Amino acid sequence: MFLRCGLILLMTLCVFGCGVQGPVDVEEVVKSPREVVTGILEQVAENGATGSELGELMNAIEELKATDSALAAELEPEGAAMMSASSDETKVKAKAMLTKLSNE
């Protein structure tokens, strides 16, 4: 008897859940290409870089060309140089690029 009641209660909870929630509105946050570049550079400056972070950086610089081509042209060679740099060198280069971004 108790087993049957327990199974019925368990099935009821599985079907209906523990609470009723209505739809939740989620607002999408869209970052500008400059904000994306800055965020990636901050990560690299703090932790060093992996190949994927540098690939993301180069993609973000490419997107920056649409809104600030002069800045993108300045950052692109530096980003490309980071691809063959050591982890410590990427930290230094990322900090220099962040300084350039903050001065723009």
Q: How does the SSE layout of this entry go?
A:
Elements: H1 2-16, H2 33-47, H3 51-64, H4 69-82, H5 87-103
Can you give a write-up of this model?
The chain is an all-alpha fold. Helix content is 72%, strand content 0%. It contains 5 helices and no strands. Helix 2 runs antiparallel to helix 3.
Average pLDDT number: 85
* Biggest sheet features: none
- Element order, helices and strands? HHHHH
Percent helix: over 70%
Features:
5 helices; mainly alpha; 104 residues
Summarize the entry for a quick read.
Helices cover 72% and strands 0% of the residues.
